[in-house]
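Q: what does this look like with protoporphyrin IX containing FE bound?
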Amino acid sequence: MGDPAPAIYARLFAEQPETEALFVRDASGAVRGEMLAVAFQCLLDLDGAYGANFIAAERVNHDAFGVSAEAFARFFPIVRDVCRELLGDDWTPAFDGAWAERLARVGLLTRAEA
Ligand code: HEM
């Protein structure tokens, strides 16, 4: 499937146009790449303390630079949707179930009032 980052950020900026300007200093794309890599790590590590704590901390950090908790929470479903589209016929029901389970848990961690 290659690097999904360009398609993921294109989707994010289409859905939340105001977020594109926040990355203005990220000329190389390194910050966007790191952010996506960390988001995947968090999804993979929700059972340990790392993922949940990291998400909780970044939700607050992002609020400080203008990304609301609601906007922050949207990143994960965008990642899932774009990966599903890029994988096409290779997307399986098992992937669907695993993502749904992870997104439900991330949803609890990223609620504005959590
Ligand atoms: C729509 C949702 C999001 C937006 C608009 C957003 C926006 C940004 C922006 C603008 C930066 C660069 C900040 C700077 O100027 O230094 C950044 C960095 C970062 N974001 Fe996000 N973010 C979102 C969601 C997330 C999520 C869900 C995670 C992971 C839990 C995350 C993790 C990070 C990390 C780790 C960095 C630092 C990367 C680095 O500097 O190497 N972000 N984010």
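Residues 12, 16, 19, 22-23, 25, 31, 34-35, 38-39, 42, 54-55, 58, 62, 65, 67, 71-72, 74-75 surround protoporphyrin IX containing FE (CB under 6 Å). Residues 24 and 31 are 10 Å apart (CA to CA).
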